[in-house]
Amino acid sequence: MKLKHEQAERGVSTLEAAFVLVLIVLPLMFGVMDFSRAMYAYHFTAHAAREASRWASVRGTNCVAPMTNCDFTTSAPVQTFVQGILAPGIYATGCSGTTPGSLCATATWSGKAADGTTDCTSGGAFTAQYPGCMVQVQVTYYYGFTLPFLSQLNAIKMSSISQMTITQ
User: Fold this and answer.
1) Contact indicator for 83, 55 with CB cutoff of 8 Å
2) Which of 21, 41, 47, 165 sits in a 20 to 30 Å window from 85, CA-based?
3) Domain segments of the chain: what residues?
4) Is pTM beyond 0.70 here?
């Protein structure tokens, strides 16, 4: 009679282990993977801002044909560079507000040179894009979790700013 009781206990402990695996271990493992994806997205955002500001800094007023995306009157060339060259496949919705997967890049050309005192706008419109002046790029990415119990959270805004001196 004692043997049957021990066998029943073994069966119950196997069932308990299965519940523990399903209820604790698997969500924990997938949660670690989802947070790892979030860290990747955060690091990607910082890298994209650095690369986009470098890209814009070497394409100042000396950017002429046959180079492409040289019209720096708006942030559109920088946005195209970030979405098309740096991030194919990481963003899902373009630059559409706070939707998860939204990736936006904006560039601004400051009115001061790298020394902080020289006025780059004194020569008229768009002279802030001359060598010695500054370009600042802000990249914003909205990350959405994939796990069902975490996807109820709003998209997490990840943003990074990089500033460089225009060299050409």
Assistant:
1) no
2) 165
3) 2-165
4) yes
